[in-house]
């Protein structure tokens, strides 16, 4: 495989860090993108990458102009982006009766508009080179819903609708587009959950443990591999059996 440049948004978060590390170990040149980070946070991220071929580029992926600048900087330095992992996401949890327009729009802009922004900017290059992988990090919440997360659930479900539509458009060009829907994953967000609730949460997972960022990174690696050229438009659940469907 000669197409080896990957862009991971939300790249210095828990899942993003694991995804960057795994793709770099798979042989990709990886660019992690996230909001501008403090020197300490960025140093911790780069230390975790150790000797791996991983760089960082700041961007606000909810803003198209920022995304244009991001892609132009990356491709001018490194060439065509062949793998895009849309991993940026936020929550603004509140019941719909109390939800502000701003809380709705923030989640839509970061979680869903960003998928359009970056996919739109990189897909032409992927089609031109006859190879590409786009992986969108959705969520189990997009499948099941959750109290106080109508904005998040709508955005995550929308990500997979986008995945299926784009997959049909570019399949003949050698580009695959897939989603991953993680369940409960051991990140800073879930670490903040009180211990009693975490215990209840784990007891509801058939495999008997909370997921690790590496579990999601392994799925990303699989969908980005050469062997996955015949898988497109799918949603891969990484949830320990918490939600099963067909």
Question: Can you walk through the features of this model?
Answer:
The protein has 246 residues and is an alpha/beta fold. It has one domain: 3-Layer(aba) Sandwich (Rossmann fold). Helix content is 48%, strand content 15%. It contains 9 helices and 7 strands. Strands 3-2-1-4-5-6-7 form a 7-stranded parallel β-sheet, sandwiched between helices. Strand 1, helix 1 and strand 2 (29-34) form a beta-alpha-beta unit. Helix 4 runs parallel beside helix 6. The protein is globular, with a radius of gyration of 17 Å. The two termini are 32 Å apart. 43% of the residues are buried. The model has no long low-confidence stretch (mean pLDDT 96).
Could you list some keywords that capture this structure?
246 residues, alpha/beta, Rossmann fold, 7-stranded parallel sheet, 9 helices
């Amino acid at each position: 495989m000669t197409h080896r440049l990957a862009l991971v948004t939300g790249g210095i978060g828990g899942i993003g860090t694991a995804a960057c590390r795994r793709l770099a170990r798979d042989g990709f040149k990886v660019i992690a993108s996230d909001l501008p980070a403090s020197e300490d946070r960025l140093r911790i991220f780069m230390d975790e990458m150790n000797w791996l071929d991983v760089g960082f580029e700041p961007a606000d992926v909810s803003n198209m102009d920022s995304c244009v600048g991001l892609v132009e900087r990356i491709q001018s330095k490194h060439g065509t982006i062949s793998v895009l992992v849309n991993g940026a996401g936020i929550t603004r949890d509140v019941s719909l009766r109390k939800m502000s327009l701003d809380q709705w729009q923030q989640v839509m802009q970061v979680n869903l508009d960003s998928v359009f922004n970056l996919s739109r900017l990189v897909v032409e290059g992927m089609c031109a080179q006859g190879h590409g992988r786009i992986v969108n990090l959705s969520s189990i919440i997009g499948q099941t819903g959750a109290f106080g997360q109508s904005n998040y659930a709508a955005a995550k479900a929308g990500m997979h609708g986008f995945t299926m539509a784009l997959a049909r458009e570019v399949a003949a060009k050698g580009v695959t587009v897939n989603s991953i829907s993680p369940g409960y994953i051991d990140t800073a967000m879930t670490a903040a959950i009180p211990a009693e609730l975490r215990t209840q949460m784990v007891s509801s997972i058939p495999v008997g443990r909370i997921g690790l960022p590496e579990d999601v990174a392994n799925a990303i690696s699989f969908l980005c591999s050469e062997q996955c050229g015949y898988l497109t438009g799918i949603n891969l659940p990484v949830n320990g059996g918490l939600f099963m469907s067909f």
